[in-house]
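Notes from hallway chat w/ T.B., transcribed later so I don't forget. T.B. wanted the structure written out for a chain they're using in a teaching module, and asked if we could keep both sequence and structure tokens in one place. Agreed to drop them here.
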Amino acid sequence: MFSKLIYRNAKRSRKENLIYFATLVIAIASFYIILSLGRQDVILFLKEFESDSIDKLLAQMPIVYLFALFLLFFLILFANRYQLNRRSKEFGLYLLLGMRKKRLVLQLLAEGFITSILALIAGLLIGGFLAEIISLTVSKLVGQGIIGHQISLSASAIFFTIIGFLSIQFIALAILGGRLFKQEVHELLYEQMDKKQDMGDFTGNVLTVLVGAVFLGGAYWVALYRFTDFTGLLLFVAVALGSLGTVLFMRGFGKLLGLLASLSKNKSTKGLHTFTVRQFQENVANRSTSVAVTSILITLSIILIADGASTFIGLENVFARSSSVYDFTVNGDSQKIEQFLASEKMEPYVEDLNLLKIGRMKYKDERGEDGIPLSLVDWSALREQMIMALPDNYKEQVLSGEIQNYSFSSENPEALNLFGVLETDTTAPYLIPESSYNGLLKAVGKKPLNLHSDEIALYFNPDFMPMDNLESMPVLDHILEKAAKEGKSLMSIHGQAVYIHPSIPMRGLVADRSVQIFSAFIVPDHMFEQLMNTETYVAYWNFRIPQKLQDQEGLLKPMMEARDLLKASGFTFESYLQNFGRKLFYVVAGSYATLYMGFLFLIIACTVLALQFLTQVKQTGQRYVTLSMLGAKRNQMKKSIHRQVLLTFLLPVSLACVSGAVGIRAMIAFVMIHIDDKASLYPIALASACIVIVILGIYGVAVARSADHELDKLRWKPNIE
């Protein structure tokens, strides 16, 4: 009999609190997804290239999981307290009929256990399914067939999800059970009367709103203009001011809501307008702190979802080769390497094979007064022209010697980046023979260089130097064009005048990072042999996967097959897979955790708002019965409830949207949310807002239907419509 009672009560509670039960299922599913991250295809793929980084990422997931459990604990505590208040009379009757308090608490724990088990089963099934979908989707996005996908469940993720969820559920129920144990029968039977809310005086409420607005304004100002001052300490000031300002604003605004009822007197008796506003005021004023907390949570969710979405959109950059040309680079120029790459087993994977030779220029035989060997390069004429091309403020700093070190950034003028590279590298520049670079140009379908014996080209590595255009450099082109018209040579090497070829297409020299240089001189082959310091000479064999093979099988599958063959050969090599994996890791690391926490904050906020509203409907049910006796129709009362739901969700969301917009703008300004294409900022912001609105709408509709159901259960006056 007792077990049947427990089962029946648990079933009824799930039906009456479907919103809460659905939230538990979603939370459990999200726990499993985040804990099973290590079993997803994309993570297994990345472990081959970024094993240390992946291990660090996975090591942080338990911290995210524990923080999520901490938040969910308070949600469960709040929701179950709402449940106890709902069933107060029921528990009082059990005690009145002779049930012992210990048995009542045991019943409560058993009902919670049944609900938890069902939520775990549903959550783990949904979580397992979603984890597979996410794994397959990301695998598809990064290239079909990177790994033979196998359906797999993470036993450790299941175990920790079950243990963690049951633990917080048990602790919350134990706390509430202890509270129930201390209550007397009459307290349960007649419930606790709501305390009369002190609405304060008009002046005090206005002052509270103004102080809250000032605090919010201060937080916005700090976020927009002083975000990184004092090594980011002002970030905590902004959060503290914003949180306090939100609480004060909600408290004062909630108490002033009664003014809305008197602003439109012609509507005050139509459609239960005054009743709706008064109910909304009571809901906000009585629980202003929790409404403020939900607004803060929604703000955080908007920022985190926008951050995660912008990072995930960066997945497009993973595929963008930009300056990269080659898929593989094998170190060395030995005949064995060339023979291996031309062998029958490697031949299907090799196209545009090219030997890249590189080395530094020799010094003069004599030394300067400081004992340092003198450079063969005299670029004083070009240096003078480059200084003239600098913006005035930088020009003065260079001429006065204030600038000693140079940093290269997309924020710098092009002339400053060029000048800094040449000033740093021209003493003993790197040399690349014309034939090597012509092989690279041929691979990308560009015209080969045809340098004269007294002509060189300047190469700037786009992998390490910011460039707006890989095909030309306007500042340098203008200087060279002017010199060509005047017939001037802007540089000499070993006392011989050399002419500089106009800008050439700039591409990466190797597959990944084995050649980390900023600039080089591309010189005729004979000049390379004469001027190169043999002690610095290195060579690399570069090749690409044939386009025909890419069209048939995609890029990643043949790249991995070629990589396995090169591994077996024993040669030292690198591949574009390393570059690809590195970019992909940043996307995964930057999006998974932030999106997870963003959606978790949003779901918790929505659930708190829902339960808070339904609690008020339960506590004020007799008011609707009174309205029916005064002639109000059921349809009118339901419309009133629907308006209350809309206002209850709209108030915290409105303030959260403003705060969230400021937060996103600040993070973009200080490159904490990085968006290369500024035009994509608005679609990202709009998409994030739509996601939040859709989820809020789903919860709002569910709350309205639950409230309608509560209304239908009331004891109406006879024959009411």
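Follow-up for T.B.: The first strand starts at residue 328 and ends at 331. Might be a good example for the class.
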